[in-house]
Write a structure and sequence with these properties.
single chain, mainly alpha
Length: 41
């Protein structure tokens, strides 16, 4: 393992966490809004 791996791999994991967090947050907000709309009916 070279020094580049110690920099590159954590960066890739961090980018994946950020993307997953943002997509998961959007999905959760959408689900909450849909449930509220169903309860109002």
């Amino acid at each position: 393992m070279t020094v580049e791996h110690f920099i590159f791999i954590p960066c890739v994991l961090l980018v994946g966490l950020v993307i997953g967090y943002s997509l998961g947050g959007r999905a959760a907000k959408r689900e909450i809004e849909e449930r509220r709309a169903r309860l109002k009916e």
